[in-house]
Amino acid sequence: MKIIILGAGQVGTTLAENLVSEDNDITLIDNKYDRLAFLQDKHDLRVIKGNASSPKILREAGAANADLLVAVTSSDETNIVSCQVAYTLFNTPTKIARIRNAEYLRERDKLFHPDVIPIDHIISPEKLVTDEITRLIDYPGALQVSHFANGKISIVVTKAYYGGPLVGYALSALKDHMPHIDCRVVSILRQGKVIRPQGSTIIEAGDEVTFICETINIKAVMSELQRLEKPYKKIMIIGGGNIGIGVAKALEDQCTVKLIERNAERAAMFAEHLAKTLVFCGDASDESLLFEEHIENIDVFLSLTSDDEANIMSALLAKRLGAKKAMVLIQRMAYINLIQGGTIDNAISPQQATISALLGHIRKGDIATVVSLRHGGAEALEIIIHGESSTSNVVGRKIAELKLPMGVIIGAVLRDGEVLIARKNVIIQEYDHVIVYVSDKKHISEIEKLFQPSAFFI
Question: In this predicted model, which residue has the larger pLDDT, 404 or 458?
């Protein structure tokens, strides 16, 4: 696939690194040559220095022959204009743009369609992160929750602790503990090493367990791995940007929410827009303010400013003063593994959420959802099955008969609204939604080929 990526920031760079290893022809455009030179030395891709929305630059990049244009510069306006130019001058078939400004997003149905601004898919990092945070609030104790198949199936990452009924027992005991609930453990991370789970695998305290189940059964499965935490009711949010406001709005009807914003003018504006959230003007590093607002009673402290270091430090302070959980927004990917799992409970990455959303539109075949799982090495895909036994490598075949690469697991199937946790004798049918866990992204191209009907191959 010939792909043009506009913007060599963290998202553009990470996306290019993901796709270049999958036999794609990548051209990366940015106006800063030092970024481009570094990437060209490191990867087999083409780089062009220049304005991403320039017709001349897009022509030089080969927009007329490109299959896909992904606009992820730091400017919404540049991303919008680039898609318009690619459509009008070069008829580029698929155009994806990252849009952050809430005003554009509110009018997306009127603005973004072929007769006005021809963008095929819009990615909003703020909305993606807001949704991720609210899912973590909904499932106390989870480290990551990702929904598939219209929310009917979920992949959950959680930690096993002493007190969980399954801790110290083999995975095969799970069925005895929950005879009426089915789930599949697809990965275990133990002391930094990934273990491929088998029935004889003993769950140990401290294991990071990734499992797939019907969404309504998430809490029941989690209760086997740890003592279920009480619902989160008292939330403190630091930073009143788009994400902070979005999270406050999403939670204020079910939780007591306090929001701290440093800028007095912005704090006053947020107070007008949030009906039930208490808004304070102040500094999250002010111990006296945190004590006054009873930080020791806070269930979740969310530090969501645009400053990674400030988020980390305020979260560490909040935990020391008694907050039960701390979640932080982290822009730099290098920080995530450094801080996650220690004093700070969750590090949330807008980049990782954005990459997942982008990959869902880029992967070959009919792929409804892609999620990058924690630590970035693994991926889960929701693949819609097409074809028949004569044109497909999977239709009409049992899961046991499929030649899956090492570390690739079919976890669940949605068929006619019914969730089937995948077992060896399940036969794949046309129109199934199949949830595939891939432990190593190097196998993605094999998976794409396996699930594509022969008519898709050119």
Answer: 404
Q: pLDDT for 228-281, tens place per residue?
A: 889 999 999 999 888 999 999 999 999 999 999 999 999 999 999 898 999 999
Instruction: Find the DSSP H helices in 195-302.
Output: 218-225, 242-251, 264-273, 287-292
Q: Which amino acid is at 116?
A: V
Quote the CATH superfamily of domain 2-123: NAD(P)-binding Rossmann-like Domain (3.40.50.720)
d(C-alpha 428, C-alpha 392), whole Å: 10
* Residue 376 burial by Cβ neighbours in a 10 Å radius (0-12, 13-18, 19+): middle
353-456: which CATH number, 3.30.360.10, 3.40.50.10540, 1.10.150.240, 3.30.70.1450? Answer: 3.30.70.1450
71 bridge partner residues: 6, 97
Q: Are 101 and 122 in contact (CB under 8 A)?
A: no
Beta 2-6 vs 25-30: how paired, if at all? parallel
- With both helix axes pointing from N to C terminus, report the angle between 10-20 and 33-42 in degrees, rounded to the nearest 10: 20
User: What pTM did the predictor assign?
Assistant: 0.88
What pLDDT sits at residue 457? 42
Whether residue 455 is predicted with pLDDT greater than 60 in this model: the reply is no
Write down the architecture of domain 142-225 according to CATH.
2-Layer Sandwich (3.30)
- Express as a percent the part of the chain with pLDDT over 70: 97
Nearest alpha-carbon partner for 448 in 354, 384, 398, 373? 384
Portions of the chain given CATH number 3.40.50.720: 2-123, 234-350
